[in-house]
Amino acid sequence: MTLPAAWAILEADFDSLSEHLGNFAGSKTVINSSNNFTALDEFLLEGMLSQCWQAWCRFCRTCVMESCLGTITSTGTVVQRLPQATRAELVSGAAIRAKQQANPPYWGRSNFLLRAEPTWGDTDVLVKILTRLAPTNSAQLLAAFSSGSSYAKAIQTIRNTVAHDNIETRTELQRLQSAYIVFPITHPTQALFWIEPTSNDYLINDAIETLKAVAAVAIS
Fold first, then answer.
1. How many CB atoms lie within 10 A of CB 163?
2. Is 41 a member of any domain?
3. Which H helix or E strand runs over 7?
4. In the structure, what pLDDT confidence band is assigned to residue 181 with cuts at 50, 70 and 90?
5. Phi and psi dihedrals of 135, rounded to 5?
6. Measured between alpha carbons, how far is 114 from 111 in angstroms, rounded to an integer?
7. 13, 51, 139, 184: which has the fewest Cβ within 10 Å?
8. What 3-state class would DSSP assign to 20?
9. How far is 123 from 148, CA to CA, in rounded Å?
């Protein structure tokens, strides 16, 4: 797959989510309190949040895998295949080891279990993998992903709190509050509607638009 093709998939996924989120927000007179959300709202938002995170993770995985296997950027530049990357399973195994250990060897054993792979949307993980495997466009990918790190982390933190709601994940979620105009929440998905003070938009809307821009830079 070319990198522009990966971006087109992400763009379609994010645009669909933005439309649904806009419809949801438009159905509310105001969103500034946990009382503005019903249980059904929370179920709906959990699904949309999951779709958002999965779309971002798929894009990041595709960028790393295809860059190692050889691909083409949006500018027409050919990203040469790494010599060791003769098939996807070898790249997968190398990515796992690149996340886990600071020093090579990273290449060798193949991985055939997707569940064993790293959390691809985690920008800290991406830095380790891209730095250590070093596809020829790694500098471009690193610069792009680093620029969107705060938004990717925000979505990851809210998603993790939804998936594993406990005192530790709630504490991580509370640490986001200093960057936003917030209201007290009773369910983690409500944090999606905290306000980003610069754009004066909801956290989730700002995150989606920023990550789309980041993705466009990553594929160039």
1. 13
2. no
3. helix 3-26
4. very high
5. -60, 160
6. 8
7. 184
8. helix
9. 8
What's the structural domain count of the chain? 1
Mean pLDDT score across all residues of the chain: 97
Residue in 207, 151, 158, 144 with CA at minimum distance from that of residue 17: 207
Q: Name the one residue in this structure whose structure tokens are 């594993």.
A: 164
Q: Label residue 40 exposed, middle or buried (CB < 10 Å: 0-12, 13-18, 19+).
A: exposed
Structure tokens at 116: 């064993």
Strand partners, 196: 201
40 in a structural domain: no
Tokens of 202: 């909801």
Q: 10: which 2 tokens?
A: 């992400």
37 within some domain:
no
Q: For residue 59, what pLDDT band results from cuts at 50, 70 and 90? A: very high
